[in-house]
Input
Amino acid sequence: ARLRQRVRRFQRLGRALDKLSCPTLEKALTFLDDKLLPATSNAVERSNRRYRKAQRSIYSVRTAEHIRQRIALDMQRDQQAPDRGQTTKALHQARSRTEELQQ
Output
């Protein structure tokens, strides 16, 4: 119901979807309106795909010791990820302030 209200609010989108009006779209909207169904995990799957690809190239011809070291490095990198995000955010904020002062 909420999705339909949003579509009605944006008239251009509504007109575009009118062209696609069919039973399949109706079923999809009904499916998306259902609160009991979980959201899709496309973003998670995408990031996992990148991780698995990296694993294939990293772990292909390695000794057990190298694999242990690589896993330790990956775990350390995952542990530091929140701090890296804060640093990136601070750098972006500083850059935007500098650009504002230059204008």
The mean pLDDT is 76. The helical segments are 2-9, 11-19, 23-33, 42-59, 64-102. The CA atoms of residues 7 and 14 lie 5 Å apart. Residues 64-102 form the longest helix (39 residues).
